[in-house]
């Protein structure tokens, strides 16, 4: 039996890869959540009120039956005995032939006093979203701590619910890993124009203001106080490695895997947000897809190597199309060629970075999907670019 721990994108995609070749060996998925697999980006749309809970499941019940995939909900994996090939959970123990750990990650909360008082939330799963929706009734102002991609998407969703959004960001510009200064300035303007946002950039939170165990606001290091009805913490993730640690599996910041997605224990694999590959934790959906493909292939005995993933992120804020890929802010040197086309009034910004006539990075703000797909394919294929004009055009 193939045993998969975790029913997120990494776990379910691995199961699909296995089923493409092995149609008969039973697959059992164990998950702490009480819901069928759903796409995590869809939680944002649920939070915004754009889709209903019943529309979240990605696959129908018949799909699971037809693919002979059984899912046990609300069950927590406790410890793996790699020698005997037995998994203990809080309810039962299971014998396996090969096992995949796809436990994902948990939200990081900064070590601030009162960080756990009522009115402070993180968003990682459907239950989190439901708790937030219940809390925001008759509320007016939300403070977002951390304006990365997820923080911006959460802010947009709550803005659509009618809340004023106050965004706090440690860095002096928005999403510095995905945008350079020009791109960040254009994005900030677009968000402020379209949604009810106010940003405080380059700030540090000194403390959380609370009263009778309930959130009231934050105080910045410079003494300014900002008040709100709730605080959304979006300050990154921590790989969920507790199961691996309890089971003698090698961990650092994440579960350590080799190029075959194998852990240090035979027949135990791992992929997704919980893993560390060559000292790196990716924490992005493209990496989870790449890693789960490799894991699935190796679980069924096909030797496929993971080569790493080119960082690629897409912002899913309504009416704002942004994709960032690879090397977006290279050092100034002759080995890099940078092509920029922008229109700040229209909110359009395109930046392509080439090295030895090959595109190695891009910022595509306001570009249509067809062009984005073209650039993604050129980066992935490492095609030598002969003519620059074909890259400059705007649809």
Would you give an account of this structure?
This protein has 395 residues and is an alpha/beta fold. 25% of the residues lie in helices and 29% in strands. The protein folds into 3 domains: 2-106 and 237-299, FAD/NAD(P)-binding domain; 120-233, FAD/NAD(P)-binding domain; 321-392, Enolase-like, domain 1. It has helices at residues 9-21, 41-48, 61-66, 126-135, 149-160, 181-194, 242-246, 285-299, 369-381, 389-392; strands at 2-5, 27-30, 69-72, 77-81, 86-89, 93-95, 98-101, 105-107, 120-121, 141-145, 164-169, 197-201, 205-211, 214-220, 225-227, 230-233, 237-239, 255-257, 268-270, 275-277, 312-315, 322-326, 336-343, 348-355, 358-365. Strand 23 and strand 24 (348-355) form a beta hairpin.
List the helices and strands and how they pair.
Blueprint (H helix, E strand, L loop, with lengths): L1 E4 L3 H13 L5 E4 L10 H8 L12 H6 L2 E4 L4 E5 L4 E4 L3 E3 L2 E4 L3 E3 L12 E2 L4 H10 L5 E5 L3 H12 L3 E6 L11 H14 L2 E5 L3 E7 L2 E7 L4 E3 L2 E4 L3 E3 L2 H5 L8 E3 L10 E3 L4 E3 L7 H15 L12 E4 L6 E5 L9 E8 L4 E8 L2 E8 L3 H13 L7 H4 L3
Parallel strand pairs: 1-2, 1-7, 2-3, 7-19, 9-16, 10-11, 10-16, 11-12, 18-20
Antiparallel strand pairs: 4-5, 5-6, 8-17, 13-14, 14-15, 21-22, 22-25, 23-24, 24-25
Helix pairs in contact: 1-8, 2-4, 2-5
């Amino acid at each position: 039996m193939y045993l998969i721990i975790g029913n997120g994108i990494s776990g379910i995609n691995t199961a699909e890869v296995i089923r493409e070749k092995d149609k008969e060996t039973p697959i059992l998925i164990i998950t702490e959540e009480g819901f069928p697999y759903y796409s995590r980006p869809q939680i944002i749309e649920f939070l915004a009120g754009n889709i209903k809970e019943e529309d979240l499941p990605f696959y129908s019940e018949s799909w699971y039956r037809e693919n002979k995939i059984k899912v046990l909900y609300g069950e927590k994996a406790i410890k793996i005995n790699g020698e005997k090939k037995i998994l203990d959970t809080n309810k039962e123990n299971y014998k396996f032939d090969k096992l995949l750990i796809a436990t994902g990650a948990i939200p990081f909360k900064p070590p601030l006093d009162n960080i756990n008082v009522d009115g402070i939330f993180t968003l990682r799963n459907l239950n989190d979203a439901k708790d937030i929706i219940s809390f925001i009734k008759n509320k007016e102002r939300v403070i977002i701590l951390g304006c990365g991609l997820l923080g911006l998407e959460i802010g947009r969703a709550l803005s659509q619910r009618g809340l004023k959004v106050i965004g706090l960001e440690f860095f002096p510009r928005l999403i510095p890993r995905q945008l350079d200064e020009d791109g960040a300035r254009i994005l900030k303007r677009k968000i402020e124009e379209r949604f009810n946002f106010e940003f405080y950039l380059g700030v540090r939170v000194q403390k959380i203001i609370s009263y009778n165990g309930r959130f009231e606001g934050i105080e910045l290091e410079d003494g300014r106080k900002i008040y709100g009805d709730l605080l959304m913490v979006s300050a990154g993730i921590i790989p969920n490695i507790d199961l691996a640690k309890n089971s003698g599996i090698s961990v650092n910041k994440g579960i350590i895997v080799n190029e075959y997605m194998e852990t240090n224990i035979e027949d135990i694999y791992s992929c997704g947000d919980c893993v560390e590959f060559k000292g790196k934790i990716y924490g992005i959906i493209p990496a989870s897809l790449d890693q789960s493909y490799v894991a699935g292939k190796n679980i069924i005995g096909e030797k496929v190597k993971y080569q790493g993933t080119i960082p690629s992120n897409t912002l899913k804020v309504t009416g704002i199309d942004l994709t960032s890929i690879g090397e977006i802010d290279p050092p100034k040197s002759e080995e890099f060629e940078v092509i920029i086309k922008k229109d700040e009034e229209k909110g359009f910004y395109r930046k392509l970075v080439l090295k030895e006539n090959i595109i190695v990075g891009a910022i595509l703000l306001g570009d249509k999907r067809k062009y984005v797909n073209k650039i993604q394919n050129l980066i992935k294929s490492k095609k030598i670019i002969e003519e620059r004009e074909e890259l400059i055009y705007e649809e």
